[in-house]
């Protein structure tokens, strides 16, 4: 069964002061997943498909920072303004800032709709903090989907990626083109290239992934949570592998 009404994710985007307008219905099976993989492997696209299929919420830390980048600097806390600066250069935001943001939004981890964490955790410190928080809440991850793809293919995917300015849907100029060039199929919004998808940021992001995030593969393998998935092929092919693995 697919999910036709998408949660507005107000609590994720705006923090504890906001309430989601359309809470997902209670389901027999609540999925709590983490997506791992280098930038550009298609985690965001798989997250969207998982949202449709499982009714979970996509909790992407990158979306929170991108939303902050759009607000005026005066309305940001100093930590958030610094985070936006790191993001623009393709660097990781410091762990303390990222963790503050996730901890503030811990109600999203308890949500009856379940979740797919996309872009978090990114370091061993973040992964340990998440484990501890989940344990204290009596929650457990069902699995960590690790999407694998050769670097040359990753670079090709990132350079053609376009996202909707309004609803954040992800397209690719050749791999997943919109029906009308530059226009989102889902909401009619304008498709743009993410600031951090520009070549100068991409190099930094891939190096950072190897250094800081790839150790999470062993971390979750040791916990018995790792589910490796080849990210080669079309989004539907990758999604078929994902659902088969789950
Ligand atoms: P993403 O969309 O997940 O690639 O995130 C975009 C950018 O936001 C990253 O390149 C980082 O600058 C920042 N960011 C997002 N999530 C995290 C995280 N968990 N830890 C550190 N920085 C993050």
Describe what is shown at a glance.
It contains 11 helices and 8 strands.
Task: Name the helicity range.
Answer: 40-55%
| CATH domain topology of the domain at 10-146 | Rossmann fold
Provide the residue-averaged pLDDT: 89
CATH top level assignment of the domain at 10-146: Alpha Beta
Radius of gyration, CA atoms, in whole angstroms: 17 Å
Instruction: Report the CATH superfamily of the domain at 10-146.
Output: P-loop containing nucleotide triphosphate hydrolases
What hetero molecules are bound to the protein chains? adenosine monophosphate
Question: Strands of the biggest beta sheet: in what spatial order?
Answer: 2-3-1-4-8
Outline: globular
Amount of beta strand = 5-15%
Number of helices: 11
How many angstroms separate the termini? 15 Å
What's the total number of strands? 8
N to C succession of SSEs: HEHEHHHHEHEHEEEHHEH
CATH architectural category of the domain at 10-146: 3-Layer(aba) Sandwich
Uncertain spans, ≥5 residues at pLDDT below 50? none
Report the structural category.
alpha/beta
Sheet having the most strands: 5 strands, parallel
Summary keywords:
8 strands; binds adenosine monophosphate; alpha/beta; Rossmann fold; single chain
Description:
By secondary structure, this protein is of the alpha/beta class. The protein has helices spanning 10-14, 43-54, 61-70, 78-89, 95-104, 106-110, 124-136, 151-160, 199-213, 215-222, 235-245; strands spanning 32-36, 57-60, 115-118, 143-148, 161-164, 170-172, 191-192, 226-230. 45% of the residues lie in helices and 13% in strands. The model has no long low-confidence stretch (mean pLDDT 89). The chain has a domain at 10-146: P-loop containing nucleotide triphosphate hydrolases (Rossmann fold), CATH 3.40.50.300. The strands form 2 sheets. It has a 5-stranded parallel sheet, with helices on both faces. It has a 3-stranded antiparallel sheet with strand order 6-5-7. Strand 5 and strand 6 form a beta hairpin. Helix 2 (43-54) crosses helix 11 (235-245), helix 3 (61-70) packs across helix 4 and helix 5 runs parallel beside helix 7. It contains 11 helices and 8 strands. Adenosine monophosphate binds at residues 39, 60-62, 65, 86-87, 90-93, 98, 119-122, 126, 196, 205. Adenosine monophosphate is lined by residues 39, 60-62, 65, 86-87, 90-93, 98, 119-122, 126, 196, 205.
